[in-house]
Amino acid sequence: MPAVSVIIPVFQRRDLASAAIRSVLAQSFQDFEILVVDDGSSPAFVADSHDARIRVLMHEKNLGAAAARNTGIQAAQGEWIAFLDSDDTWQPEKLEKQMAFSRNQQSDMTAFTCGFTMRGTTRKHDKALIPIEASHIETFAAGCWFCPGSTLLIKKTVFDAVGPFDTTLKRLEDYKWFLRFAAKGGALKTVPDILADINIGARPMPATIEVAADYIQQKLSAMQTDQNVKRNANAFLSLEYAAACLRSGKILPGFLALLQSFWLKPRLHLHVKKFWTLAK
């Protein structure tokens, strides 16, 4: 059995997905399988490489990122799960460094992330970021800052304990999953090296964020947790809605949501918490 199952959800982006797959095949750590989950692409995805470690799993119709990741997790044979979005890539030592780092950790309820380069519209807008670590739900509620779709390494058994991604959500499904993970005592550790390249994809419409935020707020209100957690979450969700509105030209609702975020969590910077250190 492979040590790591790499799960790559794909919808239509064949050329980008091929680059993502090549970045996995180029890893210095080679004990892995690649599960490409074709989420209803037309035409269906066909891998460029004939490497026997690549399996393509098919959805007959587009079900969303949560369902695609769940399909990959269910089919995974590895002890560890690593996610990679189809428009992102890894540096060659990504898996090797994360696997070595994980050997020093005692708890199975630990997720591992790494530094990444956030690719802007031009190279001068690129940012190399090192995510902060987290060991409390209050921090996880403040945002989803570590790009779990492409930096995460986590044991498959954690999904047995926490459960799958919520397929009701078309956005923020990873954020909601990590709230549940943190509620069960989960922690996040960071390899402080730049090991992934993250490309800014299509931005969600305000309505999509609004539906997801309302749903998460309802679930969070039913959880037995303190008010700081709920305030952090509501401030983050308001900020996400504000960003979606402002990008879509809906200035007034965006501005009002931004004010609400700062009212819920007064601060001197945009994000709810200082989530990153800049890489040297």
Topology of helices and strands:
Layout: E1 4-10, H1 14-25, E2 32-39, E3 54-59, H2 65-75, E4 80-83, E5 89-90, H3 94-102, E6 110-119, E7 127-131, H4 137-141, H5 148-151, E8 153-155, H6 157-162, H7 173-183, E9 187-199, H8 206-222, H9 227-247, H10 251-264, E10 276-278
Parallel strand pairs: 1-2, 1-4, 2-3, 6-9
Antiparallel strand pairs: 4-8, 5-9, 6-7, 7-10
Helix pairs in contact: 8-9, 9-10
What is the total tally of β strands?
Answer: 10
Mean pLDDT: 94
Query: Which strand order spans the largest sheet, edge to edge or round the barrel?
Result: 3-2-1-4-8
- Uncertain segments are none
Oligomer: single chain
Please report the distance between the alpha carbons of the first and last residues. 38 Å
Structural class: alpha/beta
The biggest sheet, with number of strands, parallel, antiparallel or mixed sense and barrel status, is: 5 strands, mixed
Q: How many H/I helical runs?
A: 10
Order of helices and strands: EHEEHEEHEEHHEHHEHHHE
Rg over C-alpha atoms, rounded to the nearest angstrom: 18 Å
The percent range for helix content is 25-40%
Q: Tell the overall outline.
A: globular
